[in-house]
Amino acid sequence: MYVSRARTSLRGWGGVAAMAVLCALALAFALLLPCTQKTPDAPRQAGRKLATGTQARVDGCEDAEAHRQTLAPSGADGPTIAAIKARTGAKRKLIVGVDQNSYHWGYRNPNTEGAQLEGFDIDLAHQIAQDILGDPDAVQFKAIPTSRRIPAIQDGRVDMVVRTMTITCERLQQVAFSAPYFKTGQQVLASKSSPVTGYNDSLAHKKVCTAAGSTAYAKLDADKKAGRLPASTDISTTVPNQLDCLVRLQLGEADAVVTDGALAASQAAQDPTVELKGAAFTEEYYGVAMKEDATDLVRRVNRVLVDYRAHGWQTSYDRWLSATLGEDPSASKPPEPQYLRGS
Fold first, then answer.
1. How distant is the alpha carbon of residue 282 from its chain centre?
2. What is the DSSP string of 105-155?
C-alpha cells in the first residue's frame, strides 16, 4: 500500500504519522483542539480613535488587485483588541483558527511532547499573539476544517483564521483580510505512475479530489462549466480537510488532487509515490482572515506583518518550507500591500 512505502520518507514523523494519514478521514473532526468556554462579552475599552474604513467590496472586483488592498497598519487598540485584552485568567488568549493536518504549515508533530502544533502558519499566529498580548504562547488554537473557516469567524468562535486561506473577491464579501503573507498557486498532485501531466486534457475521465469550500474546487467548477476542463473530469470528490485528498489518492479513490502548490509540495514530501504534475496555473495569496468590522484588528495584524516580513518570515520559511519549496523563497514572498487611500 502507498502509505507503507511512504513511511521511509516521513522525516521526523515516523510510523506514527503514516498511521495518522490513514486515519485522517475518520478523525478530521474528532481531533479538534480543546475549546474553552465561550468568552463572555468584554467591556469596550477606550482607545485611540481610528480612521474608519473597510476593505474593498467593489463590483467587478479583480483578484489580482484585491489580494493586495487592505487597511493601513496601526498599533492602536480599538474595540476588538480591547475585548481580547479584557479577557482574564486562562481565557486571556488570542483565539486562532488553524489547520492541524497540513505538514509544515499547521500540523501536530507526534514526536513532540503533547503532539504540539507546528508550522509556518503557527509561527505567524504566535507572532501576532506576542504583539497584542505580549506573550507568544497566549494563543488558543482551534482546528477548523477548510469549509468552516468563514463561519467560524462570522460566528465569533475565533478572533482570526491563520490557515493557508487565499484572499478572493468572494471571501472579501464575507470577512476582512490582512495584507498577503504568502504567494502560491493551484497545482495538480498525482501518483508518479499516473498519465496525468498537469491541469490539462490529461484529467479527462479522471476523478479529482479537492477540499470543500476551497479555491481549488471553485476553479475546477468554473473551468468545467466554461469548457476549459474536460467535461468527463469528475470533480465530485470533496473532503473537509485537504490532507483527506491525499488519503483518497493513496486508497485509489481519486486519480488526482488539486490544491495550493505550497500544500501539494508538503503532501509530496509525505509520500514518495506522488508528485506535482505541471506548473501552477493560478496566482494566489494567503491572508489572515478576521471579522468584517474588526478594522482595528486588521490594522494591528498588518502592522505585525510589516515587521514580520523584515524579521521572522525568512527564518520561518527556512525552518519549515525550504526543504519542499526550495532554498530561494522569492517566488513565495507576496508583493508589497496596497493600503486603501483614506484608511
1. 16
2. TEEE-TTSTT--EESHHHHHHHHHHHHHHS-TT-EEEEE--GGGHHHHHHT
Coil/strand/helix, residue 36: coil
pLDDT, residue 341, reads 78
Q: Is the dihedral of CA 227, 233, 236, 237 positive or negative?
A: negative
Tens digit of each residue's pLDDT (9 = 90 or more) over 107-126: 999 999 989 999 999 999 99
The enclosing H or E element of 3 equals helix 2-6
DSSP-assigned states of every residue in 254-309: -SEEEEEHHHHHHHHHH-TTEEEES---S-EEE--EE-TT-HHHHHHHHHHHHHHH
| Per-residue DSSP letter, 56 | -
The CA distance from 161 to 153, in Å, is: 7
Q: In what order do the strands lie in the sheet with 101-102?
A: 101-102, 106-108, 117-118
pLDDT for the residue numbered 335 = 82
The closest alpha carbon to 297, from 159, 113, 107, 125, belongs to: 159
Q: Worst-scoring range by mean pLDDT, 52-56, 225-229, 285-289, 314-318?
A: 52-56
- Report the predicted TM-score, pTM, of the whole model to 2 decimal places: 0.81
* Residue 209 DSSP label: E
Classify the C-alpha dihedral 191-194-197-202 as positive or negative.
negative
10 CB-near residues (< 8 Å, 6+ apart): 17, 18, 270
Report the range of poorest mean pLDDT among 55-64, 79-88, 331-340.
55-64
Q: Tens of pLDDT along 144-180?
A: 999 899 999 999 999 999 999 999 999 999 999 999 9
